[in-house]
């Protein structure tokens, strides 16, 4: 069955005013994301990947163009709690244990204590942190802290998960493990995920769709639909299809630089 579009951007432009003049961050961005997609955004530093994610989250406002999330404006989607946001740093409060950190948005939203506990238990299981709920952030590894951050974003069960390079600061072994866990979580929850990364292998391994962006002002150079199977062991990265997809992403990044 054809899934509906949950995110749409049409002729999207965004410029920032600075003391040195305007900075064009995004230019003529057109994009459709369907329910249940795992979409990675990849491009050079400063190309507008995070800015685009922030526009979807109503953290930045476009200069012109149209953006809808679940058929409404990003602001209305934010007010309806349509998405969870995972930042580059875990952003956990050091004086709160893991359970209390995950509960925080639920407390703000006014959920009952019993509902808070039920939801925390559920997401701890999803991210495989059962048994660590009483630990404090400084007692966990960087990878475990990011899993707690993902759990916090999942706690109020939003349909969309926005992730801004959450594994970029982690070593390759931990990153591989979290990539596997994230795919498992995506399969079990059917969330729509928008994921910013600088890593070609990570983008190809995780995604059903890869959005390749140019240097500033950020434009979409290519949108690559992946036909890799849903079940993806890490060994799939040695397959012919994976290498072909990686090469297409690499060519898109190169063409973006030459276009500039």
Query: What is the average of the pLDDT values?
Result: 91
> Helical region count?
8
Query: What proportion of the residues is helical, as a percent range?
Result: 25-40%
Radius of gyration: 18 Å
Give the low-confidence spans. Answer: none
Number of domains: 2
**Based on CA inertia axes, which overall geometry fits?**
globular
Following the backbone from N to C, one meets helices and strands in this order, namely EEEHEHEHHHEHEHEEH
Please state how the strands of the largest beta sheet are arranged side by side: 5-6-7-3-8-9
**Architecture (CATH level 2) name of the largest domain:** 3-Layer(aba) Sandwich
Question: CATH superfamily name of the largest domain?
Answer: P-loop containing nucleotide triphosphate hydrolases
Your description of this structure?
The protein is of the alpha/beta class and 260 residues long. The protein folds into two domains: 5-82 and 158-259, 3-Layer(aba) Sandwich (Rossmann fold); 92-155, no CATH class. It contains eight helices and nine strands. The chain has helices at 49-56, 74-79, 98-109, 113-126, 142-154, 172-189, 200-206, 240-259; strands spanning 5-18, 21-34, 38-42, 64-69, 83-86, 160-164, 192-197, 209-213, 220-225. A six-stranded mixed beta sheet has the order 5-6-7-3-8-9, sandwiched between helices. It has a three-stranded antiparallel beta sheet with strand order 2-1-4.
In terms of topology, how is this protein built?
Elements: E1 5-18, E2 21-34, E3 38-42, H1 49-56, E4 64-69, H2 74-79, E5 83-86, H3 98-109, H4 113-126, H5 142-154, E6 160-164, H6 172-189, E7 192-197, H7 200-206, E8 209-213, E9 220-225, H8 240-259
Parallel strand pairs: 3-7, 3-8, 5-6, 6-7
Antiparallel strand pairs: 1-2, 1-4, 8-9
Helix pairs in contact: 3-4, 3-5, 4-5, 7-8
